[in-house]
């Protein structure tokens, strides 16, 4: 289920409401000395620091198990820190009313949740007062509008339990449309485009660059092409930041990012060659 709609477990009680937070978008700052899951001694994150200004885009990448999703869980307050802090507008997150903080977030996970209802109602789950035009605009941004029009009843098509009649890519894009329609201050994409092809991913990200003016975006991805528009990219390995910078800077710097980028480009080129082989000369 999308993280925004999950009930999360926090390790501290909330002590103060968020009424003092300005209505304007604020800076998100993290200073994580160390974090391990409750009941364990294994450090999952160590020495993580970043500042994300309002309207900025932060990319996060690294091998499987490097701590990417854990970092996003801390931002969403699935857990609270005992060593370090994450602040928004200068307030530590545990000082904010939990529901109030999550209302400022829209989250799309790699495995989205759809319920048995119409496509339109699934998209409008976080914004039930949205008009049909607003729903369709969000679907266009998520590059799923045309797919929906080809369904038997368009936006009124019943998707079935957990969206079983839809492809993985369609479910991800419908979940993205839902998040965009919420118009939250911070959009979190946790490998949320993993099931779409490269061309569709590029189209979505290009539209997001236009849409996100003034909005803050945090995106994790295994496919590094999804991070090209980020103002800063963090490379996590074994819970630590081993590289940071823009895509252009990291592509020139020896390390995990450049190696993975070169590997993915080679794999994509090989895939295109197999799908569209050159005609043989006679």
From TrEMBL:
Q: What is its EC number?
A: 3.6.3.-
Listed GO MF terms: ABC-type oligopeptide transporter activity; ATP binding; ATP hydrolysis activity
Query: What is this enzyme's class at the first EC digit?
Result: hydrolase
**Where in the cell does this protein reside?**
Cell membrane
Q: Which PROSITE patterns match?
A: ABC_TRANSPORTER_1, ABC_TRANSPORTER_2
Which controlled-vocabulary keywords does the entry list? ATP-binding, Cell membrane, Hydrolase, Membrane, Nucleotide-binding, Transmembrane, Transmembrane helix, Transport
Annotated ABC transporter domain residues: 28-263
**InterPro entries this protein is in?**
AAA+_ATPase, ABC_transporter-like_ATP-bd, ABC_transporter-like_CS, P-loop_NTPase, Type_1_exporter
The membrane topology term of the UniProt record is: Multi-pass membrane protein
Give the matching SMART domains.
AAA
Give me the Gene Ontology terms describing cellular component: plasma membrane
Which family is annotated?
Belongs to the ABC transporter superfamily. Drug exporter-2 (TC 3.A.1.117) family.
Q: Mind telling me what this protein is named?
A: Lipid A export ATP-binding/permease protein MsbA
Organism per entry: Tatumella ptyseos
Give the source lineage, highest ranks first.
Bacteria, Pseudomonadati, Pseudomonadota, Gammaproteobacteria, Enterobacterales
Gene, per the UniProt record: msbA_1
């Amino acid at each position: 289920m999308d993280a925004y709609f999950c009930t999360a477990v926090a390790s501290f009680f909330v002590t103060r409401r968020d009424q003092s937070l300005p209505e304007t978008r604020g800076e998100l700052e993290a200073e994580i000395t160390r974090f391990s899951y409750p009941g364990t001694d294994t450090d999952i994150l160590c020495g993580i620091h970043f500042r994300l200004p309002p309207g900025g885009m932060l990319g996060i990448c690294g091998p499987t198990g490097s701590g990417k999703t854990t970092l996003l869980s801390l931002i969403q307050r699935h857990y609270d820190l005992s060593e370090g802090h994450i602040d928004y507008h200068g307030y530590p997150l545990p000082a904010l009313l939990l529901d109030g903080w999550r209302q400022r977030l829209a989250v799309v996970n790699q495995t989205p949740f759809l319920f048995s209802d119409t496509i339109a109602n699934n998209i409008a789950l976080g914004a039930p007062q949205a008009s049909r035009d607003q729903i369709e605009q969000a679907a266009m941004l998520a590059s799923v509008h045309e797919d929906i029009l080809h369904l038997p009843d368009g936006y009124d098509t019943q998707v079935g339990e957990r969206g079983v009649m839809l492809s993985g890519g369609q479910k991800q894009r419908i979940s993205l449309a839902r998040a965009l329609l919420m118009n939250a201050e911070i959009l979190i994409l946790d490998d949320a485009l993993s099931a779409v092809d490269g061309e569709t991913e590029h189209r979505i990200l290009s539209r997001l660059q236009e849409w996100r003016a003034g909005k803050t975006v945090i995106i994790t991805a295994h496919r590094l092409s999804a991070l090209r528009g980020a103002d800063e990219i963090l490379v996590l390995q074994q819970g630590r930041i081993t590289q940071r910078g823009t895509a252009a800077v990291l592509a020139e710097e020896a390390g995990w990012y450049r190696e993975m980028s070169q590997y993915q480009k080679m794999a994509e080129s090989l895939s295109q060659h197999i799908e569209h082989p050159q005609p043989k000369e006679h």
